Amino acid sequence: MAKLSNLRIVLVEPAGALNVGSVARVMKNMGLGQLILVQPHCDRNSDEARQMAVHGIDILEGAIEVNSLPEALKGCHRAIATTSRSRTLATPLESPRIAFPWLLEENLTSALIFGPEDRGLSNVELNYAQRFVGIPANPEYPSLNLAQAVAVCAYELYQIALEQEGESARSIPSSRTDVATLDALEGYYQHLESVLLRMGYLYPHTAAARMEKFRSLYNRANLSHEELALLRGILGHLDWILQLVPARREREIGGRGDKGELGEWETTNN
């Protein structure tokens, strides 16, 4: 299906060739074709991986290996991360059934991210996603193997795609085509953090926690390219203003001849 063809399955640092091969197989079962491996700790072309892939060998062979999660998400408009650590998230943990339709809107490239088998996704890695999904399971034993987790999610995606395909005949309005990409958003977040640090609004020891809140806010806004360009323009103007501040302070203090006395700029802006 066309909607599934625009969805990437991203495995961060997968350790087991058997798991990677199994993921390729279930992706083939459920109509998914894009497999991205971030710094894999196994050989996707090994005999073990190929034996598990069965008729998904083409997906295994076509998998792309990259060095970082931002690289895996380049060109994507939306990303959901899978995790079980709901208490550490600024936004609520959702079920696949609720969250996945958001990944399958037309004209958008999306990604579903899975963490390493032994630890799951770190807080830093979770920051690159806009929404978070947990697979409901028996609370007495909720832990799933990586390939099993991908299988559950791939099944849900396939069922949702089938439902949406049936609904398309009923003249559903087309979705937005101007959504900002995740790599463009990441560039904005880095620019924003730099400016806020220079302004003194952020401090190095708390910047990461505060920026998580900004990410959550902007992710909910679903910014367009034009809106993001507007925000980048504001940051550019602030950059220019901040370049003038040291010269202004020097003139204010120098004019009084007493460096122990605060200038007007400092008293009104602290």
Map the helices and strands.
Layout lengths: L1 H4 L1 E6 L4 H13 L4 E5 L8 H7 L3 H6 L1 E3 L2 H4 L5 E5 L10 E2 L1 H4 L10 E5 L8 H4 L4 E3 L12 H22 L14 H18 L7 H15 L3 H32 L7 H5 L2
Parallel strand pairs: 1-2, 1-6, 2-3, 4-6, 4-7, 5-7
Helix pairs in contact: 2-3, 2-8, 9-11
Shape: globular
Compressed to H and E, one letter per element, the order equals HEHEHHEHEEHEHEHHHHH
Mean pLDDT: 87
Strand arrangement within the widest β-sheet reads 3-2-1-6-4-7-5
Helix share of residues? Answer: 40-55%
The rounded Rg comes to 23 Å
Quaternary assembly: single chain
The biggest beta sheet reads: 7 strands, parallel
The residue ranges in which pLDDT falls below 50 over 5 or more consecutive positions are 256-270
- How many DSSP E strands? 7
Supply the helix-strand structural class: alpha/beta
Q: Count helical runs.
A: 12
Query: Beta fraction of the residues?
Result: 5-15%
- How far apart are the termini? 57 Å
Structure overview:
The chain is of the alpha/beta class and 270 residues long. It contains twelve helices and seven strands. It has a seven-stranded parallel sheet. Helix 2 packs parallel to helix 3 (47-53), helix 2 runs parallel beside helix 8 (146-167) and helix 9 (182-199) runs parallel beside helix 11 (225-256). It is globular, with a radius of gyration of 23 Å. The relative contact order is 0.12.
